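User: Quick one: structure for sequence A, then sequence B.

Assistant: Sequence A:
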Amino acid sequence: MDLLMLGDAVTASEQGSEFFSNLTPPVQIALLVGALSFATAVLVSVTAFTRIIIVLSFVRRALSTQEIPPNQVLMGLSLFMTMFVMAPTFEAIHSNAIVPFMESAKPVEDGGEPAAEFGLDDAVSASVVELKSFMILNTRTDDLALFFDLSNTPPPSERLDTPLKIMVPAFIISELKTAFIMGFCIYIPFLLIDLVVSTILMALGMMMMPPVVVSTPCKLLLFVLVDGWQLIAKALVSSFASA
């Protein structure tokens, strides 16, 4: 019976592959683009990416360096820092979802024992559990309570049983709040430099000179002397709770 079910699963997978390969190239491209768009939404909604990119954007604005570093550099740095922070979660998904699913999809050799049945639904469920575990650790209780109240849903006895329709928006709101708090803390020393420079220029009677012309080099010098990028990276990685 298990062999028959495994054979049906392999056959369904092969039929899905044949169906995709038989589609016209424009339809295949449309499906791939749609999948990439969904992947981008997942990246922003359920990972550490949102907090990291917002904090790095605050750093650039606080330094008054306009488009330096460029957006591509910030996006790349945010992406790889997200991969670093999410590495334990991705490894757990690989071990608990992807590997069992691939093993169950392998054809059974003659005389071999069939692998335990582990379908696509099981793989998705295991992946969702691992993502929920990460989000729960980094979501404020007040934010969860807000969306439970808005949906008129009683909170479950176990936080891991929280539905995604509540967990994801609560996680995003919590990430935004944390990112803005970190951005405020980053702004304070640079704001003080702006105030000091403006006061000195007014005292010297140089009211026509924009303060940013003098304060920007001072900010850059301070940022380099304290090894600012290292401090920012350490603060960002340390701000995420892990199991």
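Sequence B:
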Amino acid sequence: MKKLVLATLALGSVITSASAVAAEEVNVYSYRQPFLIEPIMAKFTEQSGVKVNIVFAKKGLVERLEREGKLSPADLVLTTDISRSLELVEKELVQPIQSEELESNIPAQYRDPADQWFALTTRTRNVYSAKERLGKLPELSYEDLADAKYKGKICTRSGKHPYNVALVSSMIVHHGEAKAKEWLEGVKANLARKPQGNDRAQVKAVYEGVCDIALGNNYYMGKMLNDEKQIPWANSVEINFPNQTNRGTHVNISGVSLTKYAPNKANAVKLMEFLSDDVAQQMYAEVNYEYPVKQGVAVSKLVSSWGEFKSDTVALADIAAQRKTALKLLDEVKFDL
């Protein structure tokens, strides 16, 4: 009888232990794509033993969090730009956290002052120029895109895409609302066609002779150079880092936030710290041609080949604060029409 009791107690201990292990998980809602995120999460699980459950979506995750409310299983949200991070804050769907490791790994410029969002990578908003028709433009500025000499030569995606909204917001920060509107009117007057497509479609348009200048994030150059069909597009342009003679190139982010009702908060914070540290930062750099947010982590060889650049040092929180004004200006100048 004593042996039976001991055996039962031992079995109960095993079951309890197994349940504890099973409970070690974290749930992520991700705007970022599986090819990048899944290997990083697998490495986190390998090192921590914490299982990561991920929901991927191009849109609708904010609305999903709103619907789910306190019953949401989500612990973290991975975002693709400062606009989405700000939207989560504005709708009170995230909560602040204090972490010495996050503060150490992520420069203050790339953190929310209220600790509700944290950048994980940075990406530049580049200007691609036709290699044969214009060549390299080392002294080009964003302001120059409104110059009449570029009339009919510029291609871009929708002005209301978050990447362009952030750029317009930065122009408001640097020049004020009136000057930013004047600049937008100038850029619109210089468009070769109605805004359309994604960033790579603009480089394709340069390759096809539709325009000579295209706006696009830096990592799309890496993606094109690793796609057999798109290599000719990439080889037809030079990648330029605007405003190198003054304030520096506009930088956006991918980020992470802790949800308001995170059921696995401790594990979520562990994952946030992992994503900001060396292993994950290097994976971001190598897999998606982004710039690590943690200082000292090397960029990929391909990204390094594009050269060093000076980035705009204005705080992203200040840029994010101008998002609504930027959207208003885009409507006023009828940029996408």
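The chain has two domains: 2-122+252-299, 123-250+311-332. DSSP finds 15 helices and ten strands in the chain.

User: Thanks, that's what I needed.
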